[in-house]
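Deliverable D4.2, example record:
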Amino acid sequence: MVSRYRQYISIVQFEFYRHIVRKRIIIMLIVMGLSILLPIIVRYALNIPYPSNPEDMLMEDLDGINTVIILAATFFAGDALVSEYERRTGYILFPNPLRREIIFIGKLSASFLVSEFFVTIYYLVEIAKVSIIYGTLPYELLLSYVYAALYTLAVIGLAYILNVTFRSTIVSTLLTFFFLFMIFPVISSVLMLAKIEPWFILTYCGDIITLVFNPPKERIVEYKTDNITIYIYYPDFATSILVMLIYAATTLTASLFIFKRRELKE
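Output generated by the structure prediction step:
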């Protein structure tokens, strides 16, 4: 049991080192720094006043957290598994007395911890801003952080299932990015136009991260323009939490199952 724990820690440490060497952590720090600083610079440059209550400000400022989570999943989970096959590094790991479950859990832990590190920094900055400007911290901030952590895990699950489905690091990484930035949002928009709530789309469920600060009175809003009626849907909190849990559980379980049985010669 002790040897397995040490193996797990070694895998996690190696994954941290790999991300540092590939400079992805530095890139993420730059992206996150810009996403935090640019709204502040624009607000002061245009002399835009802060909202009257902290909830409205948090809803605006945390709008960028989805981008941070998606980029983190792309960088730190997009090729976590498939690289062992494409670069044949699995020949070093797999023949050794090291169970694939340990490798998988170690890589998953590293992906989640590094991604959550950036999410946490983002929230700490917002906590500091709200405390300085308003002198108070809404309790919804904690709920939002929990929702963001769950969304991060679900997004990583999606990245991992793409890892074990395709044989190329480039393909799996790009698909992770495009699924979350383009494909899922486009599907959500099309479904809304068809008067169907996209409650099962992961990115739609992720909207509860910011909606928690100002939940809409009505979940379905109807807009009429000329002869066109447009419906805007807002996710239900309980349903979205359940959907994200299902995404995380099913994708990670399926990824582990395939990872354990896939051969290097593929």
